[in-house]
Every structure is written in structure tokens, then in C-alpha cells.
Amino acid sequence: MTKELGTPYINLKSMHLPYEASSAEIAAARQEIAAAGLQIVGGGMITFDVDTDDGVQKYFEYAKAAGMPVMVSSCHPAVLPRVEKFAKRYDIKVAIHNHGPEDPDFPSPYDALKAVRNMDSRMGLCIDVGHTVRTGTDVVKAAADAGPRLLDMHMKDLRDLKDKDSQCIVGEGKIPIVALFRQLERMRYAGYVNLEYEIDENDPMPGMKQSFAYMRGALAGLAT
pLDDT tens digits for 28-38? Predict the structure, then answer.
């Protein structure tokens, strides 16, 4: 399906590549993905749920074995200094993901930005645009304010900016996609914008194709 969408880039979740997979299984998965002409550009969500060296390091070992340059992650803020230590040791970026009003730690990108602002440059944000707008946050301004701390993005659209269940094909909702892309180009954003399509689970391909078509059209329009 990824190949049919015309993109070589893919993020993996543990449902695709389990944390418990052996080194041989992970190596085989990497080989299969590469043979398909795809590139692993990140992984997650990865939750650092245990504040011990072993509890954090095991996920960095997993990401290293899988060839993930970025870990889209979450944890209690108190765990972040330990995560930072391993981010530097493994030279893997950690993008803290905001999860909207229900998230007690990082509801908006600004909460994540405040937590990592003075940390190593490998510690940054994954802005989920849907969760961001549900907090009443201006997602375009949040991207601008994150600056180089913006390491990754999860793209979706909502018909109702307060309702997570109103997710729709990108371009059919109210999230300011074109303005966001304009800001990303203005700041020379070097990361990826990953479509996170969480609807139409029995037949997601048509909606994903339309979402990609809209985003590519928006970028083409900006280029002219």
C-alpha cells in the first residue's frame, strides 16, 4: 500500500515490527523493506514507561536495530533526562508526541517544547496536527515556534477542530494544511510529514490516495 501511494518513506509501529522481535527478525524485516524500495524514516509511538536505564535503553536498542533515525515518543516528563542521555549515546532523535486535551503530560506542542527546550538538539517534537488543534492551539504558529526542535509530524484533518472523531480525508476538513506547508517551507523544515490515516479501516486506500493528492497539490501550488 505504501508503494501504491507513491512514497518511499514509512514509519513503523510495534504492530508492524514488535519490540520483542529478535535481532534476526528485525534484520529480515529491514531487508524486506529495503528490497521493496522503501526507507524507514522513524518509528513509534514508543512510550518510555519505566524510568530506569534498562527500561529506556531497550527501546533505543530496538530503534538502532531497525534503522530508525527518529523515535516518536512519549513519557512522563521526569523520564526525559534519562531519555536524553540515551539519545546522545545512540545518536537517535527523539520526537515527543503531543496527544491533545486527554494527555496529562503533553497535550500541545508547547508543553513538549517547554520540556525539551534546553536539552540536546536530538530532543524535539513530533507535532500531531489533529491533537494540536483540539487544544485550541494555532498549529501553524506552533510549528514556527518549535523551529529546529520540530523533528517529525503526524498529518491528518478534522471536520470539527474540537472533535477527534471527525477525522476526514486531508483537505476536506478545517485544519489549515496549505498555511502549515507554507510555514514548513519558510522554516526549511528538514523532517517528514507522515500521513496518519486512522479512518476507513476496512478500505483506507482511496482516502489515503486523496489525502496524498491534496498535500502534493498544495505543495505544487506553493512552488508556483
Answer: 999 999 999 99
- Measured CA to CA in angstroms, residue 171 lies from 19, 161, 175 at distances of 34, 13, 8
Distance in angstroms (rounded) separating the CA atoms of residues 56 and 85: 10
How much is the pTM?
A: 0.96
In Å, how far are 51, 107, 205 from 152, measured between CA atoms?
Answer: 24, 16, 23
Amino acid identity, position 56 = V
Please tell me whether residue 176 adopts helix, strand or coil conformation: coil
Among residues 127, 99, 134, 132, which one has the least CA distance to residue 193? 127
Which grid coordinates belong to 17? 515490527
C-alpha dihedral, 102 to 104 to 109 to 115, nearest 10°: -170
Asked, for residue 222, whether it belongs to a domain, the answer is no
- For the segment 87-114, the average pLDDT, to the nearest whole number, is 98
Annotate 62-104 with DSSP letters as a single string: HHHHHT-SEEEEEE-GGGHHHHHHHHHHHT-EEEEEP-GGG-S
Summarize the confidence of residues 44-56 as an average pLDDT: 97
Residue 27 lies in a domain: yes
The pLDDT tens digits of the residues spanning 176-191 come to: 999 999 999 999 999 9
In a domain, 1, yes or no: no
